[in-house]
Amino acid sequence: MERITITIDDTLLRQIDNTIDGHEVKNRSHAIDRILKNALSSTLARQAVVLAGGSDDRLALPSGKAIKPLLEVGGKPVIEHIISRFKKYGMDEAIICLSMQGEGIKAKLQEGKSIGMKINYLWENSPSGSAGGLLLAKPLVKDTFILSYADVLYDELDISDMIRFHKANKALCTLALANMRDAKNYGVAKMRGSQIMDFSEKPDATSSNLVNAGIAICEPEIFDLYKPGIKSFESDLLPLIAEKQKLFGYVYSGPWFELGSQTQVDAAKKYYAPKKEDGEQEKKG
After folding, report:
1. pLDDT by position in tens, the chain (length 285)
2. Which letter, b or e, does each residue of 34-59 get, where b requires 16 or more Cβ atoms within 10 Å of its Cβ?
3. How far apart, in whole angstroms, are the C-alpha atoms of residue 111 and residue 109?
4. How far lies 113's CA from each of 148, 189, 234, in Å?
5. Best label site of 63, 119, 146, 220, fewest CB within 10 Å?
6. Residue 72 neighbours by CB under 8 Å, 6+ apart
7. How far is CA 130 from CA 67, 149, 203, 253, in A?
8. If you write DSSP's letter for every residue of 81-145 in order, what string do you get?
9. In the chain, what are the domains?
10. How far is 168 from 179, CA to CA, in rounded Å?
């Protein structure tokens, strides 16, 4: 990193300062660095595919059963957090793959005008696995695309940097990886450098703590690997990509919430709760 002095118009500087949130964008220097990288990069993806068609997407909570993508966290549904984040990184189209409970998601997001993105909805009559859900998007995917589950939050993941990493490695698929102490209930990646040599979904035992964080960068050529019997993106497709030495891992160490339990829901709600101003907690008397 080099330190330089630049002169910026006051109006532009205010716009830059408005991007500083204290979490993802820490300060003015960080904001300018990120804006320049995004502006100069020719590798950013324009499309995102969100898998929201699972048959087990209802989470039992004390208040009753809730559809995970529609859980309210920080004042808006999880899936809206995800789509809004893609917009923040310059993407202008989201493809949401739906089956069960899909009408509620469409009713909430509609055509995406309130978020500023075009949303296409694709439907399965019955769930055919995560690979089947992804296959729905094949006719619409034109270039490098983002793939995300609809029930995970990854608040500080730098998607632009992840795409650059993906392109630099000439990967077919790059998975964001989170570090979990008890990894056996997740998809686990075994690494050699930045390459994923083996991927196992919910193994009985593992020596790796790096797990699938629920977001990936993919090339359209991923669909060329489909053959009869492939149903799961995690169990069937990712091991095939690893065998071809085209699967890479981008380690992410920021806040990450996989909303499969009340504990994770509570943690996400606490993290996304509006920050109180200094002195707000002081009580009279």
Report:
1. 677 888 888 888 888 888 888 777 888 888 887 777 665 554 478 899 999 976 555 555 555 566 889 999 999 999 999 999 999 888 889 999 997 668 889 999 999 888 989 999 999 877 778 999 999 999 999 899 999 999 999 988 999 999 999 999 999 999 999 998 888 889 999 999 999 999 999 988 888 899 999 999 999 999 999 998 899 999 999 999 999 999 999 999 999 999 888 889 999 999 998 876 544 444 433
2. beeeeeeeeebbebbbbbbbbeebeb
3. 6
4. 20, 37, 32
5. 63
6. none
7. 17, 9, 18, 25
8. HHHHHHHHTT--EEEEEEBTBHHHHHHHHTTSTTTTSEEEEEE-SS--HHHHHHHTTTTT--SSE
9. 45-155+257-274 (3.90.550.10), 175-254 (3.90.550.10)
10. 23
Structure tokens at 181: 């102490």
Name, in order, each residue with C-beta under 8 angstroms of 146's C-beta and a sequence gap of 6 or more. Answer: 45, 47, 48, 49, 86, 91, 159, 215, 216, 217, 218
Joined together, the tokens standing for residue 198 give: 């083996």
Q: Which two tokens stand for residue 57?
A: 């997407």
Amino acid occupying residue 3: R
Contact 115, 19 (CB under 8 A): no
Residue with tokens 């469409």: 106
